[in-house]
């Protein structure tokens, strides 16, 4: 993999030249995306799926959350290119992919200057085929404790490699072909050497809160404390065997 960089007007694009070429700049144009994704809308928290050059891809535009997001939803303060959220996530995905971890491969990222001190960003990754996120799955059916154990082992694998996921919730966990888990959305994620026990435990606790919240919101949500015990037991075994 070789990362190429080019500028087009106010936009700076980085891309993996094993997957796309410099023409990938058009993939970040909203008109092109709308026309080539079946008319999907760019909304906060919604990824846009499309095909390009024989690849199944996912486009994500950065949106602010919380109260401030009501006023400046897509704009961030610019300092240096390497410090932008989009640049950091692209390289974070690249680093974790090179570690052999199950994450989407980064394809391209774009940072567009709005003013000298503000930017907007977007990232494109390969789509994980045959996958659904954990929120969708658990609203439809339960998972076996064996699968919960596999998820716990996988989270431990990320942690033993010092990978910190800043927002480990059910929407950021994919299950592909009903047997393999992937983690997605590494915005604000980091490789922390070493990853502290406190930070690792905060990841696990964040996931537990996410599951409990959804269980309270959806009466048919398929999650139990027995499932959670299967996950944490497998997690601890994997951590202790490292």
Automatic annotation (TrEMBL):
Its EC number is 2.7.1.166. It is a peripheral membrane protein. The keyword ATP-binding applies. Pathway: Bacterial outer membrane biogenesis; LPS core biosynthesis. It is found in: Cell inner membrane. GO terms for cellular component: plasma membrane. It is an enzyme of class 2 (transferase). This is 3-deoxy-D-manno-octulosonic acid kinase. It comes from Zhongshania aliphaticivorans.
């Amino acid at each position: 993999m070789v990362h190429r960089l080019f500028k087009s007007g106010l936009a700076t694009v980085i891309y993996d030249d094993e997957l796309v070429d410099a023409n990938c700049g058009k993939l970040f144009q909203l008109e092109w995306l709308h026309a080539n994704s079946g008319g999907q809308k760019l909304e906060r928290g919604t990824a846009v799926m499309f095909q390009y050059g024989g690849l199944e891809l996912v486009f994500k535009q950065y949106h602010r959350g919380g109260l401030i997001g009501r006023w400046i939803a897509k704009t961030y303060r610019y300092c240096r290119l390497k410090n932008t959220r989009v640049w950091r996530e692209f390289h974070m995905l690249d680093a974790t992919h090179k570690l052999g971890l199950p994450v989407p491969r980064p394809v391209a990222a774009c940072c567009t200057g709005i003013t000298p001190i503000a930017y907007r960003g977007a990232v494109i990754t390969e789509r994980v085929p045959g996958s659904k996120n954990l929120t969708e799955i658990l609203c439809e059916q339960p998972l076996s404790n064996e699968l919960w154990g596999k998820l716990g082992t996988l989270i431990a694998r990320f942690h033993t490699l010092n990978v910190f996921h800043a927002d480990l919730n059910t929407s950021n966990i994919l299950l592909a072909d009903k047997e393999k888990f992937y983690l997605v959305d590494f915005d604000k994620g980091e490789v922390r050497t070493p990853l502290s026990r406190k930070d690792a435990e905060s990841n696990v606790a964040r996931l537990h809160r996410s599951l409990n919240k959804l269980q309270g919101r959806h009466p048919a949500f398929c999650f139990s404390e027995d499932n959670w015990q299967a996950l944490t037991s497998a997690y601890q075994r994997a951590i202790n065997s490292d």
